[in-house]
């Protein structure tokens, strides 16, 4: 059984996207001339130019201004972590599509889009308030 998974993500400008992700607190490093590796915990996301992505997938990239192809959900340690992170995203040029808010009395989250319109979700779950079955 395979032990690792890499997510390949098309971007318009690898350098600019790498800078954005570093600015919001992720670890993004250049890999070779035309790609970068974004590490979030144990997950690796490889940033590729759209043309390279289209070449190895054999299809066009999704137009993120009209549709979403995926949403990346990331766990947070606290409500404050989400609030701080969202401020960093706004400062770095990302857009917020879901302002920080509470849901069901035990979840707190927010959503943003990166420079290429890929959607990300941050979520804190207060297990002490989680409904019991």
Description:
- This protein is α/β, with parallel strands linked by helices.
- Helices cover 24% and strands 39% of the residues.
- It has 3 helices and 8 strands.
- It has helices at residues 14-23, 50-57, 79-92, and strands at 6-11, 27-31, 35-40, 43-49, 71-75, 95-103, 107-113, 119-125.
- The strands form 2 sheets. A 4-stranded mixed beta sheet has the order 1-4-3-2.
- β3 and β4 form a beta hairpin.
- The mean pLDDT is 93.
Helix and strand topology:
Elements: E1 6-11, H1 14-23, E2 27-31, E3 35-40, E4 43-49, H2 50-57, E5 71-75, H3 79-92, E6 95-103, E7 107-113, E8 119-125
Parallel strand pairs: 1-4, 5-8
Antiparallel strand pairs: 2-3, 3-4, 6-7, 7-8
Q: Keywords for this structure?
A:
133 residues; alpha/beta; 3 helices
Number of distinct beta strands: 8
Radius of gyration from CA coordinates: 16 Å
H/E element order? EHEEEHEHEEE
Output mean pLDDT: 93
User: Helix- and strand-based class?
Assistant: alpha/beta
* Portion in helices: 10-25%
Unreliable stretches covering 5 or more consecutive residues: none
Give the spatial strand order of the biggest sheet.
1-4-3-2
Strand content: 35-45%
How many helices? The count is 3
The outline comes out as globular
Main beta sheet strand tally, sense and closure = 4 strands, mixed
Q: What is the CA-CA span between the terminal residues?
A: 34 Å
